[in-house]
Amino acid sequence: MWGRRSIARAGLAIEALRPVPVRLRPTPPLFSRALHVSLSHSSRLRPRLPKPAATLVLSFPSIRHCSAEARMMASQDRETLPDVAKPVNYHVSLFDLQLGGSWEYKGALKIDLQVTRATSEIVLNSKEIEVHDAEILGKDGSRLAQASGITYDKQSERVSLAFPQNIEPADVVLSINFTGTMNNAMAGFYRSKYKPVGEASADTPKEGEFYYMLSTQFESCDARRAFPCFDEPNLKSTFDFEIEVPKGQTALSNMPVQSERDGSKPGLKFVTFEKTPVMSTYLLAWAVGDFEYVEAMTQRKYQGKSIPVRVYTTRGLKHQAQFALECAHRTVDYFSEVFEIEYPLPKADLLAVHEFAMGAMENWGLVTYRTTAVLFEEGKSDNRYKNRIAYVVAHELAHQWFGNLVTMDWWNELWLNEGFATWVGWLAVDHFYPEWNVWSQFVAEGVQQAFHLDSLRASHPIEVPVRNALEVDQIFDHISYLKGSSVIRMLSVHLGRETFLRGVADYLKSHAYGNATTNDLWSALSKASGEDVHSFMDPWIRKIGFPVVTVAEEPGQVSVSQNRFLSTGDVKPLEDETKWWIPLGIKSGPELATLDTRALTAKTDTVGGIGEGTLYKINKDLSGFYRTNYPPMHLAKLGQSLNLLSTEDKIGLLGDAAALAVSGEGTTPALLTLLEGFKDEQNYLVWSQISACLANLRSVFSQNEKAAEALKRFTLKLVSPASERIGWEFQPNEDYLVVQLRKLLISMACNAGHEGFVSEAKRRFDLWSTGKDASAIHTNLRSVIFSVNVSEGGRKEYDAVKEEYLQTDSVDGKEICLSALGRTKDATLVTDYLDFVFSDKVAIQDMHSGAVSLAANAKVRHLLWQYIKDNWTAVETRLSFNNVVFERFVRMGLSKFADHQISDDISAFFKEKDTAAYDRALVIVSDNIRTNASYKERDVALILEWLTAHGYA
Fold it and tell me: What CA–CA distance (Å, rounded) separates 161 from 200?
């Protein structure tokens, strides 16, 4: 899943530190800086921990037996369902859908079971489902037992079915009749509201001014919210599915339609789908709506014929699906070749869903997406979204093999799905769009975000214990997605991409239609490479954190040492016991042309042949997941040799210097000196890292007026030459990276107070807002020009952008406007903005964009915290609709402060509250604020001294 969940629940002790609740599909992960989506990716980029929900338990007389079973399970590492029965096939029939009002539906479920030992009780997962009756049937249809008791355990989300006598080991059928609800929480079987483009079909569900489509979101543990089931990833089964819908509506599921028949009433039809392959419950999916589609056929032949690839939208939007379609059908063929296994289903559907908490979800054969992750309209959409769509489409399609065909055995190995899909998603984008230089983008965005979270004490290992399925949402975060993919990139560079992919292909072939573990992947890669991958990769997966390699120069050699890196700079001996395998990748010589590929495997080592004055650069292309701390003089020397460095090297150099300044292992003056050398840089991705470094400096020191103004002048001087050189005007067929560079440099110049650029932004906004020239604002400059005018202006500019939010028909327009509105510096408008964000005018899935925008607005970010405190009941009520959004809002909205007093205030405020949905976020918030505050207090005098000495203060 992409863009998915963040950690949000207490209960796991990490590496003998204080208990850390560990629970993103993300918010996106790789686009959060530009698009404010916390990357989910995958498919999942999703943060969500629902409140304790109704577990359906069908209880039979033997309560004592049930308690013994529960005690036995509690003593094990995993709290799984009793192993008395295993599902073989589900037949799910949904009918009598109430398309309005109660939004209830009825279901008839038949599960082919293998009963493995005698039992008088069968326990399934169930949540917000009412079971009416249950019985055990023989394979011939004869009734063997009727449930005598049905009980629910809401906390563990289970239903227990009790029978009056033992059911003996045999192949039987469990038949259940139930009622469920199509909720509006973006989880389980749910409804999405939207306003159609043009006229919707007459039988499209409608309430008030909104129309509705229906779809599912089951990962990780919400299939149980749609029907009672054995909702664990290693309890795979086949599925037969049918649903009764209005005749004018389209029904979709994982497999093609097998048949249609008349429904129970005139105007209705039953749509029956072909049987699925063996798969986990979380991958089952269906959707109903007023859909249309665009289609392309694969170029490769599968069992002698091409496969149809379709992108479905609600009526009137299919033209915006063309770019995603272009990506999708080519990606299916590419992965079939790379994985050496043909795409295993007879069709591949992608569906745009109007309300979607994550970025996307990899349901086998029916991948679902939030609209901005799959729809793009040339001339009306920001080009940045093309990059996003290409990646998210590839990420989800990678899951069709890595996750769907072969599934992790248990949720502790979620990274197997998400880390790999993230890496191979970028591999596909690089294959189709090499001019985008996406591996540099990955280093600038993915690796740096992973570094940031993993440098906190609140981090967790890539592979982390998950006691029960309800804890899994805590690990859909940047560690599983971005650290996982960064470590895979490191390993693939070391083994060689061809060898690495050959091992992956062997892994998939060996475990097809089954479940696998990290050790299974390491075994396949060890066999392919002839190296003991287990020994050197296990610490990267099973230990918390990452190292900083510190370099000391000696006559004729350098010494290198490794220690765990913490952003607070106060790592304790107990936290620093891991010895990582670290590929050093040392480039040296006058042209940095000599490469030494040795690895650091001890705490310290020496590298000979590098004499005093020799130019060298460690961690070629930032392929290793670690920071490097150079002696100050050598860092300055590298800063004077930028022409010899790759894009990835420059990004890594900047990222390391900035992080080491924060931790106190480097200095802010050293960072500023390094930044000064980049004034002639022309690469967008390097500038994006420069921008990130400056934004963090200006944020941390924003409350010191003298430092804030000096840093603003520093930024202005640094960015002015590049911004003036690139100018405002876009050229036909201009390179994607040049388009992004122009947008970034104009934004940086305006935010630094460049009078000419601010004046031009205001001129164009005035032409657009007064209607004199509707084309005055280029599509790719909407975010910049709207933000500048809201920031520099007042009520008039704010209202113009707010009206654009309400009226826009651009698929990305609402995200862009919502972020721009949060740039206001007027306290009255901030209150208006927050009232707006918490109103029904803003979709719940987008509310975190408001938090992100205000958090980045140093002048007024304190008003966001004040608003939360003053309006807590309303805030909690609104955010509680979806805990993915709740966690995101708290984490992204409160992490930018640099004041110990505010940290204490946040802690005190939440002390007596039920924070189960976002308690992990609060730990991250606390760590971030403490880091920022300590950095500010330690370096404010130092930074002012340097800025004054260099004429900025």
Answer: 43
Local confidence band at 198 (pLDDT 50, 70, 90 cut-offs): confident
> Using CA atoms, how far apart are residues 854 and 830, in angstroms rounded to an integer?
8
Tracing tokens 């032409």 back to the chain, one arrives at: 767
Alpha carbon of residue 424 to chain centroid? 15
Pairing status of strand 308-314 against strand 268-273: unpaired
Alpha carbons 847 and 619: distance in angstroms, whole number: 39
What number of other Cβ atoms are within 10 A of residue 606's Cβ? 12
Owner of token pair 């609600």: 314
Q: What is the pLDDT of residues 637-692, one digit of tens each?
A: 999 999 999 999 999 999 999 999 999 999 999 999 999 999 999 999 999 999 99
The reported pLDDT for the residue numbered 3 is 52
Question: What mean pLDDT comes out for the span 350-372?
Answer: 97
Check whether 178 has a pLDDT greater than 70. yes
- What is the bridge-based pairing of β-strands 268-273 and 238-246? antiparallel
What is the C-alpha to C-alpha distance for residues 187 and 221, in angstroms, rounded to an integer? Answer: 9
Helix, strand or coil, per DSSP, at residue 251: strand
Largest Cα–Cα separation, the chain: 90
Which among 15, 377, 396, 648 is annotated as catalytic?
Answer: 396
Look up the pTM and report it: 0.91
pLDDT interval class at 6 (50, 70, 90): very low
Res 401: pLDDT: 97
Three-class SS state of 551:
strand
Q: Is the pLDDT of residue 108 over 50?
A: yes
Burial 693-715 (b: 16+ CB within 10 A, else e): bbbbbbbbbbbbeebbebbbebb
Mean pLDDT of the chain: 91
Confidence check: pLDDT of 32 > 50: no
Instruction: Give yes or no for a contact between 697 and 661, defined as CB atoms under 8 angstroms apart.
Output: no
What pLDDT is attached to residue 465? 87
Q: CB count, 10 Å around CB of 819?
A: 24
What pLDDT was estimated at residue 76? Answer: 55
Distance CA 852, CA 892 (A): 6
Measure CA of the first residue to CA of the last residue in the chain; give whole Å: 48
Sheet holding 616-617, edge to edge: 594-596, 586-588, 616-617
Does 99 score more than 70 pLDDT?
yes
SS3 of 714-744: the string is HHHHHHHHHHHHHCCCCCCCCCHHHHHHHHH
Binding site residues, as ranges? Answer: 395, 399, 418
How many other CB atoms are there within 10 angstroms of residue 667's CB atom?
Answer: 18
Instruction: List for the chain the helix, strand, coil content (%; round to 5).
Output: 45, 20, 35
To the query of whether residue 396 is one of the catalytic residues in this protein, the response is yes
Between CA 327 and CA 331 the distance in angstroms is 6
Q: The sheet that has 348-353: what strands, in order across it? A: 291-297, 308-314, 348-353, 366-370, 360-361
Question: Which residues make up each annotated binding site for Zn(2+)?
Answer: 395, 399, 418
82, 123 in Cβ contact below 8 A?
yes
CA-CA-CA-CA torsion sign (117, 122, 126, 132): positive
Rounded to an integer, what distance in angstroms lies between the CA atom of residue 401 and that of residue 513?
10
CA 656/CA 243 separation, integer angstroms: 55
Pairing status of strand 130-137 against strand 119-125: unpaired
Spell out the domains of the chain, with CATH numbers in brackets: 63-289 (2.60.40.1730), 299-363+372-541 (1.10.390.10), 544-579+585-618+626-659 (2.60.40.1910), 824-938 (no CATH)
Structural tokens at position 619? 């961690």
The helix/strand/coil state of 55 is coil
Mean pLDDT calculated for residue range 469-488? 84
Facing residues of 177 across strands? 108, 133
Q: What is the pLDDT of residues 754-789, one digit of tens each?
A: 999 999 999 999 999 999 999 999 999 999 999 999
Distance CA 722, CA 680 (A): 7
